[in-house]
Design goal:
Blueprint: H1 23-32, H2 36-49, H3 55-67, H4 71-85, H5 91-103, H6 107-117, H7 123-139, E1 144-148, E2 157-162, E3 168-172, E4 183-184, E5 189-190, E6 193-197, E7 207-208, E8 219-224, E9 230-236, E10 238-239, E11 242-243, E12 253-261, E13 264-270, E14 280-285, E15 291-296, E16 306-311, E17 323-324, E18 335-341, E19 344-349, E20 359-366, E21 370-371, E22 375-376, E23 387-392, E24 398-403, E25 413-419, E26 424-434, E27 445-450, E28 454-460, E29 466-472, E30 476-482, E31 489-494, E32 503-510, H8 513-516, E33 517-520, E34 523-526, H9 542-557, E35 562-567, H10 575-595, E36 603-608, H11 626-630, E37 635-641
Helix pairs in contact: 1-2, 2-3, 3-4, 4-5, 5-6
Protein name: OmpA family protein
Subcellular location: Cell outer membrane
Domain OmpA-like: 520-643
């Protein structure tokens, strides 16, 4: 579409008097009133004439192209603005520039700009995690196949919603003119209407949905309760056949609720979340029907449009204030078109790491209204253009989405998708935790492999340590969990040749290296308390074994660690006696570790130093307390080699 009607900012055009104004001020008026094509003509004349283009002109020219979906020309002017201002261009412009570069297949330059901007930001870790997941996804075989649908029109068709008996309801501008509808003045296209069709029946001609209560303006983006008794839809504010505007002359969008009777809508009422000063749209019900997710540009959000949620009463009315889904989901860019099934949130975004334009993401809904790291759905769902309004059935194996990618029939087209069988037989999910503190381990690496296919996927946990993996059928799958300065853990899961119920709440524990190692100057030692031996003996006592198990644990958790054992005594007794006794104790300690399964090559030496390396002033003849002598009676387990960088 030239003006993206699927976005929730659908405003009322006000007639402006522009005689006597400068070219730039006239362009500004066109821009302010969303007449982007006219604004482009004037801004382009100014930009092509001046050597040093004003930031304001560059900004509005780039935004005008972006808003009509011309990403190629938008990228040209955002790039010029970036050259002039660098990272002072602002996060919102960085997001738009990156999306335009990706739309032009300039992925490498897009990543350079993105990573440079976020290099000192906490958000960088999330972006890198999303990129690693997407890179891994693009290397694997496609899990879904996409089909074009014959009912798409030359105009815009999008926002499908499941209806009854295999049919869907969708939004379109296809034939409002011939049906007597009004013209949307800004782009001379029809207003959006709702249509119903049966996608699997090629002979079914889409027909108007609930024509009894449709307005002469925009009616779009619906969600229907499971029993098909209630519907929520997006529409303009209007009264007595005329659009209603707020004090700024803008007609925003609202979500209304109605009851369904034999395909008609009755008892329509506006939800309490609505306000003429901002838009609400793209409603989506939770699986149990108790929550409503929606998109809005209400004040206090994170970006251009955010996703919110409210609780519903049994009669469908709103009983809680809107709650923003927070920074895990919402960004400085655009988040829209939520869809929820079985505690998984699907939505479209251009602020998360993707392939270009709006991409479809998914995030697991965690108790207490938290959300896992949004991950890109990959191909065929996403392209370098806008991909959005995905819906999927409760078996996660088929559904629909819309896109303006190349090769379509119209401005936006609806596509069907279905899972390729038998692709994956088990969804395996859980959380990675710190073995010492029991806290989540964010952004831990996971490698998934099996003897038949080799390495099949690389992904990361989210910021709360959660992960979800789809395991292939009939395989002995090995999942290796690891992170820099943490231990490594392998989990094996055997799948059958048939789909299995999801396996959830699988906890994996990783040990932090820094919690079992202490620094002594430039030397690293395994952290232990003093190891006690009986007087004049070198055999391992029960008390000594408690501490040696700490050494054993450290070497088991980090198989690449090699150590040397150094034993020391205090100054009491003869020098030669102490030297011999400490050496016996060091070698006794080595034998204990070897007997417990530690490979001999991992203990490079076990040496006693007697009283030659005292750490205080308690040498021969110096009067010291028992406690002062005790600190000299020690065994050190010095780390000589360790590989703690992820693999």
């Amino acid at each position: 579409m030239k003006i993206k009607l699927r976005y929730i900012y659908i405003m009322l055009c006000a007639c402006m008097v522009m005689q006597g104004q400068t070219k730039e001020s006239r362009a500004d008026e066109f821009f302010k009133n969303f007449k982007f094509n006219k604004a482009i003509e004037l801004y382009a004349e100014i930009a092509n004439k001046d050597k040093r283009i004003d930031d304001h002109v560059l900004q509005n020219l780039a935004d005008s192209y972006f808003n009509i979906g011309d990403y190629t020309n938008a990228e040209k002017w955002y790039s010029k603005l970036y050259v002039q201002k660098g990272n002072e261009i602002g996060e919102n412009n960085i997001i738009k520039l990156v999306q335009c570069l990706k739309a032009s297949h300039n992925q490498e330059r897009a990543d350079e700009v993105l990573l440079d901007y976020y290099k000192d930001e906490g958000r960088l870790q999330m972006i890198l995690a999303q990129r690693q997941h997407l890179d891994s996804l693009l290397l694997t075989d496609a899990r879904f196949q996409m089909d074009t649908l014959g009912f798409n029109s030359p105009k815009s068709d999008f926002s499908p919603a499941f209806y009854r008996d295999g049919s869907i309801v969708f939004s379109s501008t296809r034939d409002s003119i011939t049906a007597g509808g009004k013209i949307y003045p800004w782009n001379n296209q029809p207003y959006l209407d709702l249509f119903m069709t049966v996608p699997q029946d090629p002979g079914f001609v889409p027909e108007k949905f609930a024509a009894n209560r449709m307005s002469d303006f925009h009616d779009a983006s619906v969600t229907v309760t499971k029993d098909m008794s209630r519907i929520y839809l997006t529409r303009n504010y209007y009264k007595k056949g005329k659009l209603q505007a707020n004090n700024d002359g803008l007609s925003n969008m609202q979500i209304v609720m109605g009851n369904l009777y034999n395909g008609d809508i009755e008892d329509i009422q506006s939800l309490s979340i609505n306000d003429k000063d901002y838009s609400c749209g793209h409603p989506a019900l939770s699986s149990n029907g108790k929550k409503l997710y929606f998109t809005s540009n209400m004040p206090g959000g994170y970006g251009g449009s955010d996703i919110y949620v409210v609780s519903l009463d049994s009669d469908g009315t709103v009983v809680s204030p809107p709650k923003n889904l927070g920074p895990a989901i919402n960004t400085k860019g655009r988040e829209m078109f939520p869809y929820v099934v079985n505690d998984v949130l699907y939505f479209s975004s251009d602020g998360h790491y993707g392939l270009g334009g709006l991409d479809v993401f998914k995030s697991k809904i965690i108790p207490k209204d938290e959300y896992s790291l949004p991950v890109n759905m990959g191909k065929p769902f996403n392209s370098n253009m806008d991909d959005f309004s995905l819906i999927i059935n409760e078996d996660f194996d088929s559904g629909y989405f819309a896109s303006n990618r190349m090769g379509g029939v119209g401005d936006d087209d609806i596509y069907a998708f279905k899972k390729i069988d038998p692709s994956h037989c088990l969804v395996y999910s859980g959380q990675v935790l710190n073995k010492i503190t029991n806290e989540p381990v964010p952004f831990a690496n996971i490698e998934v492999k099996n003897p038949t296919d080799g390495l099949i996927e690389i992904l990361l946990t989210d910021e709360r340590g959660f992960y979800e993996i789809e395991l292939p059928c009939n395989r002995d799958n090995k999942m290796v969990f690891f992170k820099e300065r943490f231990s490594k853990q392998q989990v094996s899961v055997i799948t059958t040749d048939k789909p299995q119920p999801p396996s959830t709440d699988n906890l994996v524990y990783l040990t932090p290296y820094d919690d079992i190692i202490e620094k002594d100057g430039a030397v690293e030692k395994i952290k232990v308390d003093p190891i006690y031996f009986d007087y004049d003996k070198s055999t391992i006592t029960a008390r000594a074994e408690i501490e040696l198990k700490k050494v054993l644990f450290a070497m088991q958790q980090f198989p690449d660690i090699r150590i040397k054992i150094e034993s020391h005594t205090d100054s009491r007794g003869s020098d030669s006696y102490n030297l011999r006794l400490s050496d016996d104790r060091a070698k006794s300690t080595r034998q204990y570790l070897i007997a417990q399964g530690i490979a001999q090559y991992r203990i490079l030496s076990a040496t006693g130093y007697g009283e030659t390396m005292l750490i205080n002033e308690c040498s021969n003849g110096v009067k010291c307390s028992e406690q002062e002598h005790l600190v000299n009676r020690r065994s050190d387990f010095i780390v000589l080699k360790e590989n703690i960088v992820s693999k």
